[in-house]
Design a protein that fits this description.
Blueprint (H helix, E strand, L loop, with lengths): L1 H13 L2 H6 E8 L3 E8 L12 E6 L3 E8 L2 E8 L1 E5 L4 E3 L14 H5 L1
């Protein structure tokens, strides 16, 4: 439990805030030039949709978001968002997050620097 708390603290220092709140880290791969962190969206039903019958239908294909280098290595976040089905409306939806700078594959923080 203590190790998990320390990892969450480290994640909060290195990851965009919305990643920590909405995604879990599923894998980290590091080589001489890159760090790739894989993230899956939590299976929390969005608050505004809790009155409906909502079901997760798996994940969309991963997208890659580039972020600040870490120890002179490129950092890429491989992110998979969930696809949801609303049984009440009969429609699929995905949650959207304001983490990528418009028109790029860069995190907002990285693109602004």
């Amino acid at each position: 439990m203590q190790d998990e708390k320390m990892l969450i603290k480290l994640a909060r220092l290195t990851l965009p805030a919305s990643f920590v709140e909405n995604f879990k880290i599923t894998n980290i791969v590091s080589n001489e030039s890159d760090v790739e962190m894989s993230h899956d969206e939590f299976d929390n039903i969005p608050e505004e949709r809790k009155e409906h019958k909502i079901e997760s239908k798996g994940f969309l294909d991963a997208v890659v978001v580039r972020d600040f280098p870490l120890r002179d290595k490129r950092v890429n976040f491989k992110v998979r968002r969930r696809k949801w089905y609303n049984h009440t409306s009969g429609k699929y939806f995905i949650n959207s997050y304001d983490t990528v700078y418009k028109g790029t594959h860069y995190s907002k923080e990285f693109a602004a620097s």
